[in-house]
Amino acid sequence: MHAEEQRLIESAIRGDRPALEALLEATWPDAYRLSRSILRDEALAADTAQEACVIIYRTLGSLRDPTAFRGWWHRIVTREALRLAKRRVGDVTFDDLSDTEAAALVRREQSGQQYGDVDLQRALAALPVRRRTVLLLRYYAELDSSAIGAALGVPASTVRFHLASAKRQLHRLLSAPARGAATNAQEVSTHA
Fold this sequence. Notes:
With 192 residues, the chain is mostly helical. It has helices spanning 3-13, 17-39, 42-59, 69-87, 99-110, 120-125, 129-139, 145-152, 156-175, 181-191. It has 10 helices and no strands.
């Protein structure tokens, strides 16, 4: 965390309204990107980011440790995205990717780059919400399994299971011949 961000957080916690507004303005784009990666829907991502900002606005004063802000913030954004994801229908249901390869793939997805003939965004979208979320929190937000577990309210061992499963499934989706993302996602979900 940068010293400037730390000062902003501390001021906002003490009730400095301009600091709080600046903090929310600075974190909203990241909240939107994380939400969009989880939900795969721009409108829902905007709603999630906005709702997360409202929650942060209302509850920031209760945050005791300013250095815990980023983890706390990730938990709020993730929970709001998952709450909205539960309302959606139609999740389709990752092995041999190293952590470095998975991180590169997720960062590539965040920038909208293509992975060979397969659109990485489609491959990520084909993952169940929980697995996609764990993958994004690990490689996009760079959280460890304990922090992800705290954000999702599950044990770190469950996070590691979902992460390994997500990597295997993503590998299969990206390794499948380019016959259409829907067909590939269906094939992978029947073998998961």
